[in-house]
Amino acid sequence: MNYLLLFLAVAVGYGIAISMQKKQVKQMSIFLAFSGAFLLSMTINELLPEVFKMPTRRIGVFIMAGILLQIILEFFSKGAEHGHVHLHIKNRDFPWLLFISLSIHALLEGFPISESNDILIGIIVHKIPVAIILSIFFIQAQYSRKVTLSFLFLFALMTPLGNLLSDEVSVLQEYHTEITAVVIGIFLHVSTTILYESSRDHKFNMAKLLIIVLGFSIAYFF
Q1: CB proximity list for 35: less than 8 A, separation 6 or greater
Q2: CA–CA distance from 89 to each of 64, 93, 201 (Å)?
Q3: 78: left (phi over 0), alpha (psi -120 to 50) or beta
Q4: CB neighbours (10 Å) of residue 98?
């Protein structure tokens, strides 16, 4: 069921993107702000306690490594993980650099998902607006439907694949805490960047502030 929900999150994002009008596209920052707040709250409330059950300075190193890894990935993806695709399109070939960087990000997202936490919901809430933004980007950049659907299909498979590997590969299970710490770093960077970039001119307004508080609160009481 987890695999199906993670896959459908991208499909739902694509469906919403197709049905959206230009006026609605401009309102995406509200949804991004909510998803960023929700993901940040879930990361702090669900994943941090999990990795710090046995406190060690090594965990902090892996969290910092996750932040650094995400910064490197965004060098190639140009910020697609947090809903801002800043690419200069010279042709309509398959965007491999964007795909590889997003795939690494999405693959790692699947590792901390387990029955002992509710991070699945946070990842789904994060994935849907990102899928919407990616779909809008491909449509506006006039990529062919074949390229667009191929990209989104493969991207949708990555997080379920990461979850499958974490469940089935014994070597990865031995380092589950360390990998989860890396993912925490990734989520912390992505979610805080979303919150920073979701406001025009990087200034909070009351609507955004309320949405962010709502995202924090729902995630906490979920």
Answers
A1: 125, 126, 128, 129, 130, 194, 215
A2: 32, 9, 25
A3: left
A4: 19
- The confidence band for 202, taking pLDDT boundaries of 50, 70 and 90, is low
Per the CB < 8 A criterion, the answer to whether 195 and 39 are in contact is no
Chain mean pLDDT for the chain = 85
- Specify the pLDDT at position 199: 62
DSSP per-residue codes, the chain: -HHHHHHHHHHHHHHHHHH--HHHHTTHHHHHHHHHHHHHHHIIIIIHHHHTTS--HHHHHHHHHHHHHHHHHHHHHTTGGGT------S--S--HHHHHHHHHHHHHHTTT--TT--HHHHHHHHHHHHHHHHHHHHHHTT--HHHHHHHHHHHHHHHHHHHHHHHH-HHHHHTHHHHHHHHHHHHHHHHHHHHHHTSGGG---HHHHHHHHHHHHHHHH-
Residue with tokens 């006039």: 142
> Tokens in use for 219?
């995630």
CA 155 to the chain's CA centroid: 11
Token pair 């499958």: residue = 164
The answer to whether the CB of 6 falls within 8 A of the CB of 110 is: yes
